[in-house]
Amino acid sequence: MQHAHSARWIDETSRGSDTICVVLPLDGMCYTRIGQTSGMTAPRKSDGPRGIAMAAAIAPSVRVDAGAAKAEATSAILVVDDVVKRFDTPEGFLTALDHVSLSVAPGEFVGVIGPSGCGKSTLFNVIGGLLDGYEGTVQVAGERMRGPHAAIGMIFQEESTFPWRTVVDNVAFPLEIAGLPKRERYERAQHFVRLVGLDGFERRYPAELSGGMRQRVSMARTLAAQPKILLMDEPFAALDEQTRLLLGDKVLQIQQQLKQTTLLITHNITEAVQLSDRILVMTYRPGRVKRIVDIKLPRPRSSEIVSSEAFGRYVAQIWSDLREEASRGLTDEEARTLREGEDR
Prior knowledge:
Blueprint: E1 21-26, E2 29-34, H1 49-58, E3 78-89, E4 92-104, E5 109-113, H2 120-127, E6 135-140, E7 143-144, E8 152-155, H3 167-177, H4 182-195, H5 211-224, E9 229-233, H6 241-258, E10 261-266, H7 269-275, E11 278-282, E12 289-294, H8 309-343
Helix pairs in contact: 3-4, 3-5, 4-5, 7-8
């Protein structure tokens, strides 16, 4: 079994028969479903955080901390309240997130930007249910969440398409695991393939697609599960700048059409301003919210807006905040490298 960090949860000896091992959170336990069999094996641990993420995207029910009190009525669909996350390292406890709070309204697109080491990915994993052991709360639609859940879909930087499945079969995969009838799941899969602009490529395999097209397959697969909230962790980081801008246009079109609540983690200031309604600027370690910038650019938007004067002002403002934090990170990295060299 490969580890789920590659997002391919397969018994290598069974690839020819398309036997898939997927961890599903059911009744608070994790079970493995093999291929088309209706039975479940004995409970077992998942193969890592990416395995949990896929399970969350396709699980038919939400895993909720039943003992938690419901939040007061609010217009926000996502509320992160005073979250603190520390890691135990050989050098002592490291605070990755330090009293981070944010709220996201239904249909809002929020960008989170900061230097390396600011805790962006830690925040992403906490919200997505991939990390526990933190202080504070995460609530989705008024429910306090602990662990992975179907309300949140996640798209990662890493390649996550199944290479032996066609585009439409990749997109239909979570619907197959959820037990939708074949006709219904393929109709829905076809809809989302068209939505991401891949109509005509339904029967192609990932190896026949560009990197940007493969990421659109991942996006279609996640959206097909109809999550309340979409988390995107630098999904276009491996792509060239021109492709990123054009895919940004596609993301904007999809978000406008679906009114999809989205949280984007990125290092790219241009990408954040192009896509977001608001941007959270985070400090270097420990990660705190340094500033929230409202992006008051007209919608619908396209990549053409990047040449506007207003766009340039937002980029300059955010870089002004980020430059200090990035400098702190660079200084810290240099000092750590020197210490490691002296210890050798």
